Each structure stands twice: as structure tokens, then as C-alpha cells.
Amino acid sequence: MLAKTRTDSLEEEYARIMLFADGKQNDKTYATMLASWQMGLGVMPDDFGLGEDMFAELLAHHFPRLDPGSLLLPVRASDAEREDEAAELRKLLLTYRAKTSVSEVWMAHIVASACQGMDHLWQDMGLWARSELSELLMFNFPALALLNDKNMKWKKFLYKQLCITEGIYTCRAPSCEVCADYANCFGSEE
Length: 190
What we know:
Blueprint (H helix, E strand, L loop, with lengths): L9 H9 L8 H12 L13 H11 L20 H13 L7 H12 L6 H4 L5 H11 L1 H6 L6 H13 L15 H5 L4
Helix pairs in contact: 1-2, 4-5
């Protein structure tokens, strides 16, 4: 297949990548993120923050017939100063992984890398809707996703879980419902 150009639409790039999908769970999610990444959307660093070897394994596992050379790789580095934070997020996610495939390990790395962005987590990951993020978290990390029973924004929820895990309670409100910042944590992301 000919190498693509940035003039392709997001939907065309998604369709192109899906031609190489292997029919596994997470294929569509990874194709969405890859297509967005190709179009310069989201904040995912080079290799999705997985490193060259794990990124190659992800592509071979989910898109075995995709020529990695057909991807236009954005040049974005991970924030090295926030690696400890990303490692804690990965640890949290891996604690709750469904343990059905290696894909969950890659997804934990990707979610942790995307948390370094400044937008909503689904946008930073290059997903097209919050519902896609909710679905991927429910599939890959179901016990963790179920803890978000009040529909808190996912990035805020993950960081809150880190604080709870460490026994850090910085919020002064007796409950989320009476907090002055309620809308920041639970408002619409669309």
C-alpha cells in the first residue's frame, strides 16, 4: 500500500488501518488512536509512550499486515519529569486489568501517557468521544471502571484513585456533591 499523506481524512485513515486489523478486542480503539495520531490529534508521544519494541509488538498483534513504514510518526516526546507519575498510573491500571490479553498492558501504558495531556483524557488519547474511553476502561480495567459509579471525569477519577491508594485526601469538602469544584470533576466533557 502506498504511504499516506496528511491530506487523508481521519475517517479514511481509520478505515485504512482497520483493513489490517486482526479481529481482536481493542483493534477499533487502537485504530482510532492511530488514525488521530496520524492526523496530529491528541497528545500521544512517539510510540504511544510504549517504547519502540512494545509499540512494534502492539502493531504486530493488532494489525499484523500493517506496514509500520506507512505510518507518519509525529515527533512528540514523553515528559521525562513526569515519569514517576506515569509509572504510578500504570501500576494502578495494571492492578485492575482484566487479565484477558497482553493488550491491557499496552493500554495501561497508553492511558498513563495520555494523562500527561491538558485536555480531557479521551481527547488526549485521540479518541473521538468520551464513550469510547469509558468502553475501553470497562473492557480492559473493569473493576476500576466500575468504581467510577458517579461518572467522574476519567482523568480526575484516575488521579483521585492514586490519592486514595496512597492515603492522601486533599479535598476539603465532606463529599463531592457539596464541593465548590463539583462541575470541574463531573461536568460534561463533550
